[in-house]
Write a structure and sequence with these properties.
single chain; alpha/beta; six-stranded mixed β-sheet; 272 residues; 9 helices; UDP-N-acetylmuramoyl-L-alanine:D-glutamate ligase
């Protein structure tokens, strides 16, 4: 039998590992696959975590991260990339140095603070993130805690969120998407700012199992960009994918379970 060769779109994730499988590299690669995009990865750190939380974080040496990135870049025609947890200044600067020479769409998920408020970035890394990485972003995807840190604005209402987005946009990213995350008061609304504010409406999905939502959204947008979609098309598809994942979230473990990365695939399959 003659093999049928496929040449898919390729996306790269530069992020940390989640041993519980709900977020990080694991979530990114599953999201890429859901969009039929081949996923490559460069590991920045290894976390010991489960549905109850993170108990340990071990960074990869910067030389190890650089070697991973060069190995991918030297062989595989990556169409789009995303970053996730970069942890410290050295890893951010190593990542930024390569990304400056890579003319493809870049989705920067500034993993600084979790949706529950837990700090995920070392103190001296925030300046490096702002100075070295933000100006390279095609799209920056902060949650509300991260948007507050990056902008210096308190986010109490819609006008505050718009002001924060404008302040972050002025730091260099081509577009900023402030995610509603677990803020029930926002009702599933996200704010896109690309010079003008655009509120993206969406239904609130009521579930306690939302681990990996932010990683998955940025990965799904990256997959769409890798496929050649315009940013607005990629965001619309990604937000729908996350919504379906939340509707069929996985009640596993003793804490906050992850969203379901095969929910959209299963719904398509079930309709056949």
């Amino acid at each position: 039998m003659q093999a049928q060769h496929i040449t898919p779109a390729i996306a790269l994730t530069i992020a940390g590992s989640d041993s519980g499988g709900g977020a990080g590299i694991q979530a990114d690669l599953r999201a890429f696959m859901a969009f039929r995009v081949h996923g490559c990865s460069a590991l920045t750190c290894v976390t010991a975590q489960n549905t109850c939380g993170v108990t340990r974080v071990d960074p990869i040496p910067p030389a190890g991260l650089e070697a991973q990135l060069q190995a991918v870049k030297n062989d595989l025609p990556v169409d789009a990339l995303k970053t996730g947890m970069l942890l410290n200044r050295e890893l951010i600067q190593t990542t930024a140095e390569l990304l400056r020479h890579w003319s493809i769409p870049k989705v920067i998920d500034p993993v600084m603070v979790s949706r529950t408020g837990a700090v995920l970035l070392e103190d001296d890394a925030i300046a490096a993130l702002r100075d070295d990485l933000l100006p390279l972003a095609t799209l920056l995807t902060p949650n509300r805690h991260e948007a507050r840190l990056l902008s210096g604005h308190e986010l109490n209402d819609d006008s505050d969120i718009e002001a924060a987005a404008a302040a972050i946009h002025a730091q260099g990213p081509a577009a900023v998407l402030i995610k509603s995350g677990s803020e029930r008061s926002l009702g599933g609304r996200d704010l896109l700012f690309n010079g003008q504010p655009h509120w993206l409406e969406g239904p609130w999905v009521d579930t306690p199992h939302t681990h990996g939502t932010g990683c998955t959204l940025s990965a799904a947008i990256t997959a769409g960009l890798a496929l050649g979609q315009d940013l607005d098309v990629a965001m619309t598809a990604a937000r729908e994918y996350v919504k379906q994942g939340l509707k069929q979230a996985l009640a596993i473990g003793q804490g906050q379970g992850p969203i379901c990365h095969w929910a959209a695939i299963r719904s398509i399959s079930d309709s056949d």
